[in-house]
Structures are given as structure tokens and as C-alpha cells.
Amino acid sequence: MSAPSAGSRWGLRSAALLYLALLLLIPVGAVFWRTFEHGISEPINAVTSEDGLHAFWLTIVCVGIAVPLNTAFGVLTALVLVRQNFRGKALLNAAIDLPFAISPVVIGLALFLVYAPRDSWFGETLAQNGIEVIFSLPGMVLATVFVSLPFVVREVMPVLQEIGTDQEEAAETLGASPWQTFWRVTLPAIRWGLAYGVVLATARALGEFGAVSIVSGHRNGETETLPIFVQRQFDQFNAAGAYAAGLVLAILALLVLFSMNLLQRRSSRAVDVEDDDQGAPPASSVFVPQPIQKEA
User: Fold this and answer.
1) Any idea what DSSP says for residue 3?
2) Can you say how many angstroms the Cα of residue 77 is from the centroid of all Cα atoms in its chain?
3) How many CB atoms lie within 10 A of CB 63?
């Protein structure tokens, strides 16, 4: 098979770059330009206002709660799906992808029907005990957890399948407890896949609008995240404030993208180092029993 000509290569590259420019670079650049089109004071006042700062920190809080929960659940679920066989495994595996298949608005509506203060399954009972889920932080966290659920699971599962169970079985044979085996063998082996899944879950949680919009109630200064704040600024014809808040989200997204690329490079380097060390004595890659002591 003959190699493609230089003209074909340049044509493919130009088409890919043009596609990315039309869908990503030009819109994001327009946000930067429109934010400071009429000066810097107006957008800064918008994002540093009381409502703007509250929306920013509420977004960070939702992400800070949802991502660790999904990290722990994702690792546990990936271990169960890869390492165990049981009835209903295919159903659980399919259920993990529900947030990909269902609209976030539907997710928010489902949470509302389950946890609303009135005419819901559990909301009335919870409200009688002083627990408010809908129109408060717990409901927003639940919505964020649901939409960012699959990422850690789907990134960790292929890594677990690739590494197999040889080292874990060797560790157990040498006297390590299941907890020690996980911390000293399994977790170091899946660290890059886990980190990549956490980055993807963070990016998804930061920009979530549909589900959170349904369960938040749009209370200004109370249950308003940064994406909802952007919508309110547009509804109030405050274009500078909307663009400024959108710029903050864009900067956060760029930071997440940078972290993702950094993790990819480090993961590739780690794989290259492991490949180079395959001919060396396996002392660093095989579980060493000396430092491990049996738990009482």
C-alpha cells in the first residue's frame, strides 16, 4: 500500500484544524473577546459580586463532594465488574452508562419526583425529619453525582482487565490482606486510569446545567451554580456578566484539559519505562512481602 501524498496529508490536517476551529477555537475566542469588549470593570464586577462569588464557590463545593464520591464508587464498581462473576452483572454494567443515554433534564426530573417535598416517594418523609433535598445543596450534589457517575468506572475497568490478577494473587499468597493488596498492588497499577477518570468526571461536573437546574430552584445567592448564574445574567440582559461567568467556566475547563494532557503524557512515559525495564530483575514490579505485616 502506497503512502499518502504530501497534499493528502496537508488536506486532512487542514480539514481537522478547520473543524476544531469552527466548533471550539472560534467560539471560545469569541467569549474572551466579548467579555472585555467594553472594558474590564463591568465583567469583574459581575463575577466578584455576592451572587457571582456564591455561584462560583457553590459549583466548587458540588464538584468537591461529587467527584470523590464517584471516585470511591467507580473504583469499587470497576473491581466488582472486572474481578467477580455474578447474576445481574450485565445489568449493572449497562446501568453505569445510563447518564450517557438519558438527558440531564430527565435525570433532574426523576430526582424531583423521588425527593420533592410533596407528592414524592421519599421527599415528604425526609422533609418531616428536617432534611431538604430538592431546592438545596443535597439535591444539587445528587444531580452532579449522577451525571458524572460513569467516567471513573469506564476509565478504570480497561486498566484492571489489562493488568490481570497475577500480582494480586502473588500478594495474597505471600500473606497480604485484601486491604494491603489493594493499596500496595492494585491502586498503584490503576493510578493513571483513575486520575484520568477523575479529570473527566471533574470536567463533566463543572459544566452541569440541566439536572442541577431542575433540582436547584434557581434561588439567587442560595442554589445557583455558575452555569445557572450565566443563564440568569443572559435573562437579565447583562451580557458582560454572562460572558464573564462563561469565561471563568472556560478557564476552569482549560485547566482540566491541561491536566488531562499532562496525565496522558505521564501515563505514556510510565508505560515506556515499564517496557524498558521488562528485562531487568522484577524486584520493583512484583509484590515484596518484607515490609508487609499481617493485620491483627
Assistant:
1) P
2) 16
3) 22
The amino acid at residue 97 is D
Helix (H) or strand (E) holding 123: helix 123-128
**Residue entry with cell 500480582:** 167
Residue 46 phi/psi, 5-degree rounding, is -70, -50
Look-up of cell digits 433535598: 133
Share of the chain above pLDDT 90, in %: 40
Cα separation values, 14 from 9, 19, 21, 85, Å: 9, 8, 10, 48
Q: Residues 177-200: pLDDT tens digits?
A: 889 999 999 999 999 889 889 989
- State the pLDDT at residue 294: 47
Domains of the chain plus CATH, in order, are 41-272 (1.10.3720.10)
* Per-position DSSP letters for 165-230, written without gaps between them: SHHHHHHHHTT--HHHHIIIIIHHHHHHHHHHHHHHHHHHHHT--HHHHHHH---TTTS--HHHHH
Contact 295, 177 (CB under 8 A): yes
- Answer yes or no: are the C-beta atoms of 213 and 229 closer than 8 Å: no
